[in-house]
Design a protein that fits this description.
493 residues, alpha/beta, 21 helices, 3-stranded mixed β-sheet
């Protein structure tokens, strides 16, 4: 089968949307760090839709670690397909927004030079929570991170996200160029504010004047991004290529739903993403909190408990009546009361839409994928909600079960005695604690609660939380996940 590319676009079947602009006229106005499936299925789609009217905003995609995406897309001229699927069918389109793909470790100095191009006005990021070299519990820079320590001494050849962002800004300052806007698109609380603090703190390790210049001149708008984009599988490649009649080595398969809320605080020009369906607002925080707690919090709950129950995908987990009921009850009874009022926004309808999205049979969103990097995800997805409820004296039964599910997952073996591949920046530390404690809740729960980069200091010392976690974890070990979920759902209604 021939490869998808500029020369073969005309051979696509009717009904597949393709770029409606001349790609040779598109300039690189955005450098995106973290060229994974999510960016290609979300921000790149919004950008692609406006390039006909404003070709200044092409995207240089940057892989910070692996060359796999570059190797797949370069022979296709940067083209790839996005398939939005649900039970009703598939909608396919070809995205042409990428002007190139770079692999940062291959030429870090060259990437710094690209960041200093005056035409680049936005540097955006989707590097996942672990890619910001920070303490998830406090948001503080981890100055002891090996990449941060390296970059503080080698800012012309950095390795980290912060190293590239600050290295590019430093070169622009040296050349008398205006800074670019830095646009975080990851699931971090106040992601723009958090990234701003991290960039200033990192710059301060190398040059205090540069840190002050960034604080005074660089904009870091916050965003809320929402679209479920599972990792691409070989089956996806096969199915998509068959539908296209052309080989697409790195397609994106996602859901029809997509949302992007952006704080309108840019240091210069910005794309008219609102024309593509994004929403510019003065304050992203309420939208962000709603999404982090309802969608992401529920997703992590489904991932850990579903995985332990033997469910490979989110849809399979949601087919378990007690787990689906517990998640729905948690969203309604324990999460929603902690959210700020959003005038005119129907939270009840949003919850119902989330449940429908979780049940989408066309998305093979693996529970193991969502379960990755739990030490980075728990603080904003679940622990913040728990803190809010404890401060009000409210019960936390279902939320605590999700935390206990993570601990049971960290223990390293599933309910059939099979090993669990723990993929987490703190994997070595977590596994050492779990191995020493063994599958005993009274030892394992306190051991994991001692990891202050996840739980902080106050929460583990609150007996309401510590006892509840230990009790839930004990039930998971003794009775199994399915029985524990059913009992809790029955006990708390």
């Amino acid at each position: 089968m021939d490869r998808l590319g500029t020369a073969t676009l005309h051979r696509l079947p009717a009904g597949i949307v393709r770029p409606d602009y001349d790609r040779t006229t598109v300039a690189t106005g955005i450098v995106h760090l973290g060229l994974g499936a999510f960016h290609r299925g979300h921000q790149a789609v919004y950008t692609d839709a406006l390039l006909k009217d404003d070709p200044r905003w092409g995207i240089l995609g940057v892989s910070l670690r692996s060359p796999d995406t570059r190797d797949a897309l370069e022979p296709q001229g940067g083209l790839y397909s996005v398939t939005a699927s649900d039970g009703a069918g598939h909608a396919r389109r070809i995205i042409g927004a990428l002007t190139g793909v770079a692999v940062a470790p291959e030429d870090p100095a060259g990437l710094i030079a690209r960041l200093a191009d005056p035409a680049v006005r936005i540097v955006s990021t989707t590097v996942t929570e672990k890619g910001y070299s920070h303490d998830p519990a406090t948001g503080a820079l981890r100055a002891d991170d090996p990449d941060i320590r390296h970059d503080a001494l080698n800012l012309t050849h950095p390795r980290s996200t912060l190293g590239f962002i600050v290295g590019g800004l430093r070169l622009r300052r040296q050349r008398g160029l205006p800074p670019y806007t830095v646009l975080a698109c990851d699931n971090l609380p106040a992601n723009g504010h958090t990234l701003r603090g991290l960039a200033i703190a990192f710059a301060g390790l190398t040059d205090r004047d540069l840190a002050e210049w960034i604080a005074d001149n660089v904009r870091f708008p916050s965003t809320m991004v929402d679209r479920i984009v599972p990792a691409t599988t070989d089956a996806d490649r096969s199915d998509v290529s068959a539908a296209l009649g052309l080989d697409d080595a790195w397609p994106v398969v996602t859901e029809p739903f997509s949302q992007w809320v952006i704080e309108d605080d840019f240091g210069g020009d910005r794309p008219a993403w609102d024309v593509s369906g994004a929403q510019f607002v003065r304050d992203v925080a309420p939208f962000e909190l709603m999404k982090l707690r309802l969608l992401n919090g529920a997703h992590s709950t489904i991932a850990y408990l579903g995985y332990l129950m033997g469910c490979e995908t989110v849809a399979a987990a949601m087919a378990e009546p007690d787990l689906a009921g517990l998640v729905e009850d948690m969203m309604r009874e324990e999460i929603t009361p902690t959210l700020p009022a959003l005038g005119g926004f129907d939270v009840t309808a949003y919850r119902a839409a989330l449940l429908q999205r979780f049940r989408n049979p066309a998305l093979k969103h693996r529970t193991a994928q969502i379960a990755m990097d739990g030490s980075q995800k728990l603080p904003q997805r679940l622990l913040g909600t728990i803190r809010d409820r404890l401060a009000r004296g409210l019960p936390i039964t279902r939320l605590v079960l999700a935390v206990a599910g993570w601990m049971r997952y960290v223990s390293g073996t599933d309910e059939h005695g099979q090993p669990i591949a723990l993929r987490d920046p703190l994997a070595a530390k977590l596994r050492a604690l779990a191995d020493e404690a063994g599958p005993v809740a009274s030892r394992l729960a306190p051991a994991l609660l001692s990891v202050t980069s996840v739980f902080g200091h106050e929460l583990p010392n609150d007996p309401r939380f510590a006892r509840a976690v230990e009790t839930a974890l004990g039930s998971l070990f003794l009775n199994g996940t399915l029985a524990t979920v059913a009992r809790i759902r029955q006990d708390v209604g």
